[in-house]
Amino acid sequence: MRKTATTAAGAAKATRTATVGIAGALTAALLLLTGCSGGDSGKDDGGGGGDETASGPAPASGELDLPGSITGQRADWNRCSAPTVNQGRAPGAEGPPKALAGTDWECTKVKVPLDYDNPGGKTIDIALIRAKAKEQGKQRIGSLLFNFGGPGGSGVTTMPQAADPDYKKLNTRYDLVSFDPRGVGESATVKCRGDDEMDASRAVDGTPDDRTEFAKAEADQKAFTEGCDQRSGDRLRHMTTTNTARDMDVIRQLLGDEKLHYFGISYGTQLGGVYAHLFPKRVGRAVLDAVVDPTKSEVEGSLAQAKGFQLALGNYMKDCAKQAKCPTGKGGAEGTKRITDLLAQLDKQPMKTQLGRELTQGDALTGIASLLYSKETWKYLTQSLQKAEQGDGSYLLLFADVYTGRDQQGNYNNENEAHAAIACADTTERYAEADVRKQLPRFKKASPIFGEMLAWGLLGCSGWPAKGEAKTPEVSAPDAAKMLVIGNTGDPATPYEGAANMADQIGDSAVQLTYEGEGHGAYGQGDCVTTTVDDYLLDGKVPEDGKRCS
């Protein structure tokens, strides 16, 4: 869901890191409560496996005029561990994670200009991770660059979790590559708050019912933006999607590829569209799955999400009603009332948990929303709501922790801060309390469960210390190679209509594929979609525009 603030109102994220990573993280989180977790720490085998890749062809004249210190870089790849999405890094930790014995993953960093208007000035490092193609020589196509969403999601942590088994077939002929976009993870990290401050912020009521609650939420937002300015202010205006797309072209050169082969999911579709607009002649085979609508304002985009999450919740409740002891009863009005009653109870009195912290209304909403991203996690939503009915908020709080990037030791990754930096750099839209109150009736009508949270989330860029770039992204690329644009009819976070709008904005190079099903993202949801995408990426077979899968 849309998110820029770190208050409960900001628990809504614009898009979310690909479901493939979320489902695994949520499953692991549940094991912590049931006492079944375990694992090996592994030992550093000294790195090794160093590999240098020569820079590829320079960009076409007029696209980017970069100094030789950028275009002439060589990648020094070294073996590294496959970190988990929610592992957390120790305060002050620097450099790549330690290598694990037997790992196939390699890491490196590439330098890019902080400011592309001054390409010879200050540079920042962008962290990359890859798994080499299993087949080399003529069978190897090149690199396939992934962005799994966010904005603010770490590709370095998500890629290893997604690669096997989800992208195992693609790894036969492609090097699977991902990266931490600028501001994210190990790439020019944006920081705004400490871990204790993040915990305190989540306790603030982000859907204020009175002036006192609003004053606390407003103060929390002010503290957040001031923290971003103090800790990361000199780089905030450079955290745009446009600049990340330019970084991707530098990455393309470093990888030695004439064309960029790309797989973007969720926010990654917006990033891919912007890249195609800037570098249409550099587009190779590109898949955009779970598509962000490039035509909508912040208000209309958030409103569409409210409808999308309400639709997904309704579909969950219909499915849940088939089983005994469903916590949302027969669904429909009954199910909605049960959830609104739970949220009203939490608004008055947070619920105890086994985690030593209380479940608030905001965290309950976040936990519920996180479990709607995939049909695979609906069973966990049922368990979480059943536990909450019994007075135990542990499950919902744990899933809210995973969603907000908090590990079991209380360490946060920087996804929330990076999300704010990127989202606010990308838009000129800034909203005030009066704007939200004007929109509240529309949002409540769209979703009695999620509407208020998404409406108040519009304040996420209020007081932001840097100006934004544009109201909506420019993605037109009619002269690019054929790009596959995939929409999912049951997607809560990026509603289906966004795919058609993206395809229309891209132009003649867009080919639309529809998946009739649930969840955020279609690839891997069935043979029809998966085979269509694999045939396109591996063999260049472009499907008929408008093809539908179920």
Automatic annotation (TrEMBL):
Q: Tell me the ranges covered by the Peptidase S33 tripeptidyl aminopeptidase-like C-terminal domain, including all copies.
A: 447-549
Listed GO MF terms? hydrolase activity
The family database entries (SUPFAM superfamilies) matched by this protein are listed as: alpha/beta-Hydrolases
Q: Which InterPro entries match?
A: AB_hydrolase_fold, Pept_S33_TAP-like_C, Serine_prot/Carboxylest_S33
UniProt keywords (A-Z) are: Hydrolase, Signal
Annotated region (Disordered) at: 42-101
Q: Name the domain of life this protein comes from.
A: Bacteria
- PANTHER family, from UniProt? 2-SUCCINYL-6-HYDROXY-2,4-CYCLOHEXADIENE-1-CARBOXYLATE SYNTHASE, TRIPEPTIDYL AMINOPEPTIDASE
Family stated for the protein in its record: Belongs to the peptidase S33 family.
Name of the protein in question: Alpha/beta hydrolase
User: What organism does the UniProt record list as the source?
Assistant: Streptomyces coryli
